[in-house]
Amino acid sequence: SSELTQDPAVSVALGQTVRITCQGDSLRSYYASWYQQKPGQAPVLVIYGKNNRPSGIPDRFSGSSSGNTASLTITGAQAEDEADYYCNSRDSSGNHLGVFGGGTKLTVL
Amino acid sequence: EVQLVQSGAEVKKPGESLKISCKGSGYSFTSYWIGWVRQMPGKGLEWMGIIYPGDSDTRYSPSFQGQVTISADKSISTAYLQWSSLKASDTAMYYCARLVSSSWSPMYYFDYWGQGTLVTVSS
Description:
- The complex is a heterodimer.
- By secondary structure, chain A is mostly beta strands.
- Chain A has strands spanning 5-6, 9-12, 18-23, 33-37, 44-47, 61-66, 69-74, 83-90, 98-100, 104-108.
- In chain A, β4 (33-37) and β5 form a beta hairpin.
- Chain A is globular.
- The model of chain A has no long low-confidence stretch (mean pLDDT 95).
- Chain B is 0% helix and 54% strand.
- Chain B is globular, with a radius of gyration of 14 Å.
- Chains A and B meet through β4, β8 and β9 of A and β4, β5, β9 and β10 of B.
């Protein structure tokens, strides 16, 4: 199995740029996907693949990857971006099994 | 429009059985994996397992193998998550989600999610 490691909490000033990272061996072979979850709501996909945004996701959200680390960047963070963010990827077994990171609580100051 | 609609909240006693559902619409139900994700109160997302309704191929996280059963009825585009004997520690929100994954691509993501089913197990 694999693990994905995220920082538990990150903060950013309103309008500034923030990067949320996700580390794991499986990220050397598979893309991470990123999900935003607000209190009482289901998760929402915000980034998938190399750097793809689903329809309706603002372009201030972007993704990147290097080695065993994937990153979600929010350029010009807004108050409504305050949420929990989770990374997800396929694990190294190659059997379509997956894993989530522990989540990062983003606070917009 | 792709939709996953889950069954309603459940309150059960320890030892009871339970089966919750996730009905897909707006796409070819047999062509995508459906996954189940657990979120315990105040905690993060946990990957439980997936099923490919086209052939009922099912995979489980080692953490959930033997604890739950995932199934699907493709004739009614519905996936299920069931327990034979609930424990208090099964209290959680459970989400189903459509998984995009193939053997020849590094892509892997859940693009559509159900609204969640809250399961409460208490004596």
